[in-house]
Q: What sequence folds into this?
């Protein structure tokens, strides 16, 4: 099942698709819990009833509505750096023996076809195509053997980064949280529609039609169960939390000369079974 959040005529809505056609309702038309975040917190039975209700709704053409991030205010957005060996190598880092972890905030999130905003203070705007893991069942101290039971689904993410800000401090958070830089969507695909742990999925980033990144999740240093288990040693994972799993080689900062995104550019992230996430770049 695919789940999309949209706006039309100033009203927010949700749509689901079991095959190709999305059907949905505006939030004020949904009985009981409305937004996806609330439904995830209520558990799997609530999700089943909620999705069945949306499937009885009207057809929704995602090309004719404003597609929003599937989750608007997740409690946590946890990003993983250097999680592909080729990317660690190209940036001059030794492959880590423990995940490199930093945070994004929901104030940076944008949706499919929203503009990625290059701020006035920097031109070093870089792309990072990634796959995001959406937690469906919370928990702490989750063993790797049952970690996939906690996954609701997966989505695409473009972790657009301001590289000069990223390297101003030992931690990367400041360069990863400019407004209008965290593209997420276009929808969430539930875990049952993909291989376990999103294993062996091709991931690609194109800038102005040219392939700049190509990777496969079988090359993740820390796979999905390991990430969930490791993070849950420290914090309680909650329904709706997002883990952004890392980017493969090909980022702009590692090229000679560096390849920065600029106004007018179009960046497209795609992956097997997850659709495409398309964003144009604008100046603030």
A:
């Amino acid at each position: 099942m695919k789940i999309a959040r949209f706006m039309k005529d100033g009203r927010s809505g949700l749509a689901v698709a079991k095959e190709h056609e999305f059907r949905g309702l505006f939030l004020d038309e949904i009985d009981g819990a409305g937004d996806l975040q609330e439904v995830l917190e209520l558990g799997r039975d609530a999700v089943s009833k909620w999705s069945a209700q949306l499937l009885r709704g009207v057809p929704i053409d995602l090309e004719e509505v404003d597609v929003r991030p599937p989750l608007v205010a997740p409690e946590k957005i946890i990003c993983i750096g250097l999680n592909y060996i080729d990317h660690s190598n190209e940036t001059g880092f030794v492959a880590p023996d423990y995940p490199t972890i930093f945070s994004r905030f929901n104030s940076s999130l944008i949706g499919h076809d929203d503009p990625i905003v290059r701020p006035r203070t920097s031109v070093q705007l870089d792309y990072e195509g990634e796959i995001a893991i959406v937690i469906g069942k919370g928990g702490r101290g989750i063993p790797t053997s049952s970690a996939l039971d906690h996954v609701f689904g997966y989505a695409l993410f473009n972790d657009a980064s301001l590289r000069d800000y990223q390297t101003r401090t030992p931690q990367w958070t400041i360069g990863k949280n400019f407004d209008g830089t965290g593209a997420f969507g276009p929808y969430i695909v539930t875990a049952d529609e993909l291989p376990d742990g999103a294993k062996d999925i091709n991931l690609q980033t194109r800038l102005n039609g040219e392939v700049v990144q190509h990777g496969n999740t079988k090359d993740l240093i820390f796979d999905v169960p390991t990430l969930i288990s490791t993070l849950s040693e420290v914090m309680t994972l909650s329904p709706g939390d997002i883990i952004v799993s890392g980017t493969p080689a090909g980022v702009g900062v590692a090229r000679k000369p560096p390849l920065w995104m600029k106004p007018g550019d179009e960046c497209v992230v795609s992956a097997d079974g997850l659709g495409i996430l398309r964003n144009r770049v604008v100046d603030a």
